[in-house]
Amino acid sequence: MVVGVDVTVVARIAAALERHPRFAQKIFTEGEQRYSGRKAERWASRWAAKEAVKKLCSSSGQAMPAYREIEVVRRRGGPPRVHIRGQETPIALSLTHDGGLAIAVAVNHIGSRRRELPVPPDDLVLADRPEDGHKGTFGRVVVVAGSRGFTGAPRLAAMGAARGGAGLVEACVPEAIHSIVAAGCLEVMPTPLPDAGTGVLHSEAVATVRDRLGGADALVIGPGLGRSPETVSALLELLVGLPCPAVVDADALNIVATSGFDLRLGNQAIVVTPHPAEMARLAGTDTTTVQADRVGTAERYAQEHGVVVVLKGAETVVAASGQPTHIDTHHVVALATGGTGDVLGGLIGSLLAQGLPARDAAIAGVTIHAEAGLIVQARRGRAGALASDLIEALPAAQERLRQALEAATARR
């Protein structure tokens, strides 16, 4: 038997509904909205139910569904039932409210046997999660991403960081797209950057970004930035004298490659996350040559530029100067879809912010990302998975790997 329990303050949910008009649409199904009406305790009970179901899924090693994918369905003369993605589940649900609290208990008697834990790689290290930790304990990530026409990348990277365990995540985006990105960000803080009306990372934004990096534990920069002249200038200025470790991804890599920028000028640990075509541009070669010698290409670039290289693809390579090269053994075709690389960049940034050294953060990010891909593939199939599905699977994937490490330690 697997149990999930949640207790929610009714007034807190009522305040959220009043402050954020889109909260109800993002969290609750249309049926739940109709049923709850003006009764705050009904809204709170359904929030608690969704949280309880998520905890149940996490405890049983399953991918956690999104809030709106969980629906509490009332049955005349019977207890409420739980539907996930439109399908009725065997989860038994008890709801109650009293004294300003809403309480939900979700129980699953079927399928409670845990799946076999993964075998973690020998060099996998995960960040500590002390029980007395708070959001400051787990680091602050600043994501600089997005441009007009590329509004999804900032959210994917930021949510990858949030689901990776960072305590605080801030998404810095051009002012022209701020409202679009903000509408999809409940759990991360969207910050508008001055863009002179261009809709891209602009030199006017440099001072604002540097200010936001004050006290940051990691920077993720590049997803969806584009390569306009204004962006090139601003990016290269930002990469000099970084105040914290960074993940340089996507368009930022292309700008580095074409400009010949020396990443050692960052004066911080830097993880670069190229796919084969980006690696070819960085190394001054072609994709065929990269794929013919993935390990050698990654190792040479890491050695010459003093960075950690994550060369993505089947059997992702993690190379760092003077350290053993890590080769991930996963083959997950469900990850072959747009946006999953943005999620990986955010995830690695999260692990950097939690205090892992650059190579350890890269290996952990790649491993968690792949395990999450396996969860999604098992649930959704090999085709049609989305990057947002991957985000939701990250906590369960990391927890399963953490349990595997703990079990391995106990056996020693």
Summarize the structure.
The protein has 412 residues and is of the alpha/beta class. The chain is 42% helix and 19% strand. It has helices spanning 10-19, 23-27, 30-36, 40-59, 152-163, 178-183, 206-212, 229-238, 251-259, 276-283, 287-292, 294-305, 340-353, 358-380, 387-411, and strands spanning 2-9, 70-75, 78-84, 87-98, 101-108, 140-144, 168-174, 189-193, 218-221, 246-248, 270-272, 308-311, 317-320, 326-327.
List keywords for this structure.
412 residues; alpha/beta; Ribosomal Protein L22, Chain A; UDP-N-acetylmuramoyl-L-alanine:D-glutamate ligase; 2 domains; 9-stranded mixed beta sheet; 5-stranded antiparallel beta sheet; 15 helices
Task: Say which CATH homologous superfamily of the largest domain is assigned.
Answer: Ribokinase
* Mean pLDDT score: 93
Q: How helix-rich are the residues, as a percent range?
A: 40-55%
SSE order:
EHHHHEEEEEHEHEHEHEHEHHHEEEHHH
Main beta sheet: 9 strands, mixed
Quote the distance from N terminus to C terminus. Answer: 29 Å
What is the rounded Rg? 22 Å
Q: Which fold name is given in CATH as the topology of the largest domain?
A: UDP-N-acetylmuramoyl-L-alanine:D-glutamate ligase
Per DSSP E runs of 2 or more residues, the count of β-strands stands at 14
